[in-house]
Amino acid sequence: MNFDSTSSYDYKGMCAELGIEYSSFLAFLNNQNPMKTVTLTDDDKPLSDAIDMFLANQKQLLKLKKISPNTQKLYEGVMKRLKTYIEGLDKKYTIASLDEVMFGEFLLDCRKEKNTILSDRTQNTYTAVLKRFLGYCYTMELSKRDHRSKFKFNTVGLMPRYLPDAQVKAFLSEAKQRRNGYLWHTIFSFLIGTGCRVSEVIKIRICDFDLENNVLRIYKSKGKKDRTIPLYPEVVRSVKRYLNLTGLQELHHNHTGYLFTHGYGMDRQKNLSIRSIERMVVNICKKLGFIERYTVHSFRHTFAVRCLMAGMKIEYLCQVMGHTDPKTTYIYLQMLPVDLQKEISEKYPFAFENLLLNIFNLEE
């Protein structure tokens, strides 16, 4: 194709506006492969340099408490892995040259590294981190265009993964047989009886309980929000029994020690890790031969499904679970913690309470 570079039309300006390399544009017109070389432009940072700047910014945000340590750790892990991957390639990538093809190859490389298939949710997590990075690049004018729209999330099914009653009983029974079985049995009973996130459970302290009103205060939950949830009597009995077995005869309102710990009596200053609970779930499911791939979050799903099956209204369940959506009008349905506990205990406890009584197998 003949191309008149002396034309009065501003081809370079057009390429800059569209985010296209001028050399790639020329190569395309001359039927050449524009991907053989990647030419850096003055307005587009090398990808590796941009990643370093982004990670430095995330560390600064962590110091300012704008993001959580877990979030910073996630960003750092994904972006360092991406940087290592691109530095091992022959090409020199810029922000603009990062596309879905290259990112897909990166995900395949991660799969080989872990010797497993990355789930849709994991791939979406990586994509979310990449979009965060690209948003930073655009905001800081490291790139003239916002490239976030190039990358799409995978469609993930929303069916909850919950345990049938028989599997719940088998799981709790096997938990009792483990070392410190009373601890593990109570943790999983608590998860399925409250619907709390595991990240919330490990941070619960003795003083967070209000047994006069049968409620539990959850501080700095997802989204850094506090909430108060009602407690079923069987959950309270399970917790009290566990505390008695660990040398604490009653709940002290001023006791700041953790609820779930390997400590004894008043010495409860070191909590369990999320990883240790996740490993126990995997080990027990493997021992029981469960085909379904359950995670610790499956207990939260189980709680929610059973509450709905027992007749609890969705607006009440949303408050218990700490959800701020699904409906815009949900904010008008907020209730005070004590009123919420009364509504649930008086109108909706029976089917679920009987289930808890059965699966906990507690002695009166």
Automatic annotation (TrEMBL):
CDD domains in UniProt: DNA_BRE_C
Domain Core-binding (CB): 45-138
Keywords, comma-separated and alphabetical: DNA recombination, DNA-binding
The keyword Nucleotidyltransferase belongs to this UniProt entry's keyword annotation: no
GO biological process assignments: DNA integration; DNA recombination
One Gene Ontology MF term: DNA binding
Domain of life: Bacteria
Keyword DNA-binding: yes
Domain Tyr recombinase: 158-345
PROSITE patterns documented for this protein: CB (PS51900), TYR_RECOMBINASE (PS51898)
Sequence similarity: Belongs to the 'phage' integrase family.
The name this protein goes by in its record: Integrase
